[in-house]
Amino acid sequence: MKEGTHEMNKRILSLTLSALALPGLTAFAQQEGTTPTQALVLFSSKAPGGTVNTTDVTVKVDNRASNLLKLAPVPPNGAQVAILIDDGLRTSIGGEMGNIRAFLNNLPQGTEVFVGYMQNGRVVSASETESFSTDRAAVGKTLRLPTGLPGASASPYFCLSDFVKNWPANAENQAVAQPQQPTHKARFVLMITNGVDPYNGSTRITNQDSPYVNAAVTDAQRAGVAVYSIYYNDAGFGRGRGSFSGQSYLSQVAQGTGGTSYYLGTGNPVSLVPFLKNFQSAISDTYVATFPVESNKKMVSLKLSTSLAKTKINAPDLVRPGTIVLAQ
């Protein structure tokens, strides 16, 4: 009996020492009741060059200083990029299909892409496989003109919530085990929409607190998804209060999830190319930050700052404890 106890104690000691040898786990192990949590963080610098280190960044969780356990760039084969097109857009968007295809083809090799159309409160895949794929040219060929029916999406925020809660799989990785492929990849969404929420009533400036927009932000935060958007009018709205309302909501979603909302005035952009280039740069400049969070909370606030000169940080306002955005 004593010999069995001795062997068990030796095994426990061995496992403990092995665990403490893992990078970053020593600091984390000292904080009981916490769980490692990740968030996508965009570093926008006017003085590009070099990498960002943990010593360059300060993290606050619920307004209290926290340890930054790890900071690593998103690798090309570790990203999933979803383009969600509002099916109610003006058909003039058809002139941009070639630019969207070029954007998909110019993404780094290994990046997984998806194209879907927002309609009736959900996202319908442009492809029959209804999954992400590394065959960017094939996905680009599935692009089509939107129907151009006013309000076809019902609400882009219903669609966004449904999409992030039911994130499509990758058929390629499901069929064959891919060595060196992350099991969970960093998730990016680009919405092309006018952003108007018809279910929130009037588009007056005094009525810009939509529970559906708030729900979409929370759902994306829980899923660890960074949401970007390009403002484009639909067939039922032109300039005016609708433009203001839609842009306001899209900015709210971007700010809450660590993304960016792109628009130029109240009209449609002359070309999507500058915005698509900015989006691609944002993906390549995004890092995964890992830090401890108290595991007994539902959501916590997140604030990051940096000592790097001429550098701005975009990160989600709130994160869910235990969220993993990139895992091998």
Average pLDDT reading: 86
Number of strands: 14
Please give the share of residues in helix. Answer: 25-40%
CATH topology of the domain at 76-284: Rossmann fold
Q: What's the gyration radius in Å? A: 22 Å
Architecture of the domain at 76-284, CATH level 2?
Answer: 3-Layer(aba) Sandwich
User: In one word, what is the shape?
Assistant: globular
The total of helices stands at 9
Major sheet: arrangement of strands: 7-6-5-8-9-10
Task: Name the beta content range.
Answer: 25-35%
Major β-sheet profile: 6 strands, mixed
- CATH domain class name of the domain at 76-284: Alpha Beta
Give keywords.
328 residues; alpha/beta; 14 strands; globular; 29% helix
Describe this structure in words.
This protein is of the alpha/beta class and 328 residues long. The chain has a domain at 76-284: von Willebrand factor, type A domain (Rossmann fold). Helix 5 (156-165) packs parallel to helix 7 (211-223). The chain is globular. The strands form 3 sheets. It has a 6-stranded mixed beta sheet, sandwiched between helices. It contains 9 helices and 14 strands. It has helices spanning 2-20, 25-29, 97-106, 136-140, 156-165, 171-175, 211-223, 241-257, 273-284, and strands spanning 34-45, 57-61, 64-66, 70-73, 79-86, 112-119, 122-125, 186-193, 225-231, 261-262, 286-294, 300-306, 311-314, 318-319.
